Every structure is written in structure tokens, then in C-alpha cells.
Amino acid sequence: RLGIKIGDSVWIERRGDVIPKVTGVIVSKRAGNEKDIVEPDACPACGSPLHKDEENVRVVCTNSFCPAQLERGIEHFASRKAMDIEGLGGKVVKSLLENSLIKDVSDIYALAKEDLLKLPLFQEKKAAALLEGIDKSRHRSLSKFLFAMGIPFAGEKVCRLVSRHFGSLEKIMAAPESAFEEIEGLGGVRAKAIADYFALDGTKKILVKMKKRRVRPEADSAPVSDKLAGKTFVFTGKIPMPREKAQEIVLSLGGKASGAVSEKTDFVVAGEKSGDKYKKALKLGVTVLDFEQFLEMTKEKTG
Questions:
Q1: Which of 72, 140, 142, 272 is the most buried (most CB within 10 A)?
Q2: Are the CB atoms for 220 and 157 separated by under 8 Å?
Q3: Percent helix, strand and coil across the chain, each to the nearest 5
Q4: Are the C-beta atoms of 272 and 240 separated by less than 8 Å?
């Protein structure tokens, strides 16, 4: 739409709090050696055909066993917001795959110290630390486990909704599509995508192996009260605690945490250097709180 080429200089403006948006090309800076962006017709990693999503935006490899997808999928599984396995970063995942020590994400739970010590990346202490991190992750919350699995259309918020609705991985695996459609806030597209994911033979095989390897996701804690039931909060700017923790406080009191301001937003908690969300809240007449007011409102949880 913007006619951008490889090598172009572009105009960027700030959107939301920190997200940059490309708004145009600086044509006067073109030197003549820019190249057109050619959409690939095959996956650069495995050569399989590509597929465009319904919105004609994302181009996705159709190969479920694509090595690049597998590598990034395991990285995501181990990431901080997912299973939070310290030490299982990109270089380690790549080395484990290249040396055939793992073939899918469940295999990380079968790793032994002698396996790791075969790799140049590891010495005794580092190997022990990684195995400890892997072991600790066996009992992460169900919502984090679902998010870690990289289910299509299922971000952190959706995974919390699904986790709290069903309460266990076994119930999720046995649920028909209609059961997912009953979850308020999920929608038909997400419900179908999640149901389809758990119906896949590949998914079932991995989850069976996870269970055999003592991976037991624990049910998420129910809200400690309904003090904020029906209330939606949005956080903007820099606040004195990690935003994820502040959102968890809202959820634990029965409220909802959103990333965007709308007419349905009840409160915007504004920290330092608040951006467009703060301005939109004022425009819509949404109540704006500073962080101290937020703490006072939620002191049942924080105090």
C-alpha cells in the first residue's frame, strides 16, 4: 500500500504507547539501488507451499514439521511469558535440534545432563541449571501452558479465559468446538481454531508425551473476590510495577485487563509518559487513575 522497497528510508510515528507505525516513504532519499519486495511463493526454510490467512496479511508455511517453525515454537514455549525456562534460549534450542537431542517440544522434558554435556555450549553447572529450570516448569499454570503451546489465535488473555472455563488440560482436550463457543469473549473464529488445534493427531501425541514426562499444568487461581467484577482496566505509561503484575491484580479481583481503550473501558491507570491511550481516555470520558489511586482501589489484594 505504501510502495516500500528494500533499502528505503521511511517516516515513522508513535502509535499507542510505544508501537512504531510506518506512515510513508521518503522518496527523496532513494539512491536508485532499492529493490522491490517480492512475496515468496515457498517457505525459505523448508520449501513447502505458503498460505495467506483470511485477512490476506500473514503468509504462513503449510508444513507442520517445518524446522524453522519448530525452532521458534520451542523458543516461544520456553519464553518468560510462557513456561519461563531460564537458559533455554535461541542458541541452545538450535543446538539441541541440530544435534538431534530433541525433535519436538515434549523432548525437552526427557533431556539428561549427559545429553547436554555433549554440546560445546554446556559445562556441568550450566547443564544442571537448565535441567532445574525445565523441572520447575512442569507445574506452571494451565493458562501459561496453553499460551506456551502456540495455539493459533490464542494469546495470553484468551488462554486465561479457556483455562478458567475448563480448569484442566484433560477437560480442554475432550471438549467439542461448541464448548469453546460458550466462553464469553472468545468468539467463533478463536473457538474453532482452538478446537481444531486440540483435535490434531500431532497435538494429541505431544500432549501424551508431556504427560508421560510428568508435565502437569496446574489450574489457575480463581479470583480472590469479585470487587472489580465487570470493570475493565487499561494501563498506560510507566508504572512502579511490571504491567503484567498490575494486570494480574485486576484479574484476581474479578476485573478485566485490556490493551486498548474503548467505550467499554471503565478505568485507565496512567503512569509517567502516558501516550495515546491517555488522550483517548480523556476524549471518551473514561475515568483516569494514577497508580496510587489504583493501589487504593485494589488494596484488598495488594495490602
A1: 142
A2: no
A3: 45, 15, 40
A4: no
Domain ranges of the chain: 67-138, 142-212, 232-302
Q: Give me the pLDDT at residue 303, please.
A: 44
Residue 170 CA, chain-centre distance (Å), reads 22
**CA-CA-CA-CA torsion sign (193, 199, 201, 206):** positive
Alpha helices, DSSP H only, in the chain? 67-78, 90-98, 113-116, 124-136, 142-148, 156-166, 169-174, 177-181, 188-199, 201-212, 243-252, 276-284, 291-297, 299-302
Superfamily of domain 67-138: 5' to 3' exonuclease, C-terminal subdomain (1.10.150.20)
User: What is the CATH superfamily name and number for domain 142-212?
Assistant: 5' to 3' exonuclease, C-terminal subdomain (1.10.150.20)
Q: How far apart are the first and last CA of the chain?
A: 51
Residue 58 is predicted with a pLDDT of 79
pLDDT at 51 over 60: yes
Grid look-up 500431532 returns 202
Residue 252 grid coordinates: 484476581
Beta-bridged to residue 22, according to DSSP, are: 12
C-beta separation of 263 from 281 below 8 A: no
Architecture of domain 232-302: 3-Layer(aba) Sandwich (3.40)
| Count helices and strands in the chain by DSSP H and E runs | 14, 8
The number of CA neighbours under 13 Å toward the Cβ of 196 is 10
pLDDT band at residue 90 under the 50/70/90 scheme: very high
